[in-house]
Amino acid sequence: MRKIILSLLGVLLIIASFFLAKSLIDSKNKPKPVLDKVIKTVFIDTVKNGDVQIKIPANGSLVAKRRVEIYSEVQGIFKAGNVLFKPGQKYNAGAPLIRLDASEHHASVQSSKSNLYNSIAAIMPDLRLDFPEVYQKWQNYLNAFDLNKTAPKLPEMASEKENYFITGRGIVSNYYNLKNLEQRLSKYVISAPFSGILTEALVTEGTLVRSGQKLGEFIDPSEYEMEVSISKTYANLLKVGETVELKNLNKTETYQGIISRVNGSIDKTTQTITAYIDVKDPNLKEGIYLEANINGKTEQDAIEVDRNLLLEDQQVFIIKDGVLDTMPVTPVYFSETKVVLKGLPNGTILLKKPVPGAYAGMLVKPFEAKANL
Q: Do residues 324 and 39 touch, judged by C-beta distance below 8 A?
């Protein structure tokens, strides 16, 4: 009985092995499933070569074109005036900014005037006797002499003898000593050289001002200039009088500037050249940071595309019969986001936006916007 059971189990095992082998053979002979071809949808653009205006980016902050640092050349007490000496205060041209107490120096000037007058008056009798021909002009000078006004210019010497006589009495030296004192007296009042606004005030009324001390800063807020540094590569593109577009950091305001000056030398350290842009606008203030787009060379038969469309080997993807291909190009200018290319024939279809994982031979189809129903 045992032998019969074992024989049956062996026959069953053989039959099972046969069917298992057959199923394995059949599975190998099954045809592989056909995968659907994936066609990527892409944004395209058609090449239309033309003139591309190259714009050179630059940036800088505004400073007043006319600014004055106010220093004192004399010493004295700062006298209070009708207008407070404070930042933001406006002054017209010629208006006094600062008045210092000059009473002591004024007395010295008056004393020197009196000495000059007395010196001339003392020689009048001698002039009447020895030089009657010049007596009247010196008499007229004395008559016009006013102690409350600046001393008038001495009469012209008509002869060498007259010159020796007048100089020998010390009149000429007294006159120039007086003019020196009068000139110094004028420094006790500092006037506005032009209409503008005070941006810095370092002293207040009643302060003892010393000679050589800085008192503040004064600017003309009607015109500003911006200093920008441009790569030496574009030095030949900078032209005085060229219009420049300026924008603030938020790109919300646009201003028009003009290149007023270009430095004649290149910075050895940075290899850049400095240009100065003038700009006028009532909304601008000193210190505002602006970005400039300076017009450079105009490239002919060129096209401007995004920088990320240019491949490392200076090629771009184009589309031929629904398949991606590459074409060599010649880049002529790079900006932060754009590149100017030459060498693409008109009518060439190229990608408008980069495609992740793109390769030559990839099947693509152009994106078509659906019409609104």
A: no
Give the chain's domains with CATH numbers. Answer: 42-52+300-366 (2.40.420), 55-64+222-298 (2.40.30.170), 68-100+188-219 (2.40.50.100), 104-186 (no CATH)
Which of 257, 221, 263 lies closest to 238 in space, CA to CA? 263
- Residue carrying structure tokens 């390769």: 359
**Cα–Cα distance, 373 to 368 (Å, whole number):** 15
**CA-to-CA distance for 211 and 105, rounded, in angstroms?**
14
Determine phi and psi for 109, rounding to 5 degrees: -65, -45
HEC readout, the chain: CHHHHHHHHHHHHHHHHHHHHHHHHHHHCCCCCCCCCCCEEECEEECCCEEEEEEEEEEEEEEECCEEEEECCCCEEEECCCCCCCCCCEECCCCEEEEECCHHHHHHHHHHHHHHHHHHHHHHHHHHHHCHHHHHHHHHHHHHCCCCCCCCCCCCCCCHHHHHHHHHCCHHHHHHHHHHHHHHHHCCEEECCCCEEEEEECCCCCCEECCCCEEEEEECCCCEEEEEEEEHHHHHHCCCCCEEEEEECCCCCEEEEEEEEEEEEECCCCCEEEEEEEECCCCCCCCCEEEEEEEEEEEEEEEEEEHHHCCCCCEEEEEECCEEEEEECEEEEECCCEEEEECCCCCCEEECCCCCCCCCCCEEEECCCCCCC
Per-residue pLDDT tens digits for 46-65: 889 988 888 888 889 999 99
Tens digits of residue pLDDT in 265-305: 888 888 889 999 999 999 899 999 999 888 877 888 899 89
Q: How many CB atoms lie within 10 A of CB 259?
A: 20
Cα dihedral across residues 103, 104, 110, 114: positive or negative? positive
Whether the Cβ atoms of residue 296 and residue 56 lie closer than 8 Å to each other: yes
Confidence check: pLDDT of 345 > 50: yes
Going from the C-alpha of 333 to that of each of 1, 133, 229, 299, 314, the distances in angstroms are 97, 84, 18, 9, 13
Calpha distance 96→82 (Å, rounded): 10
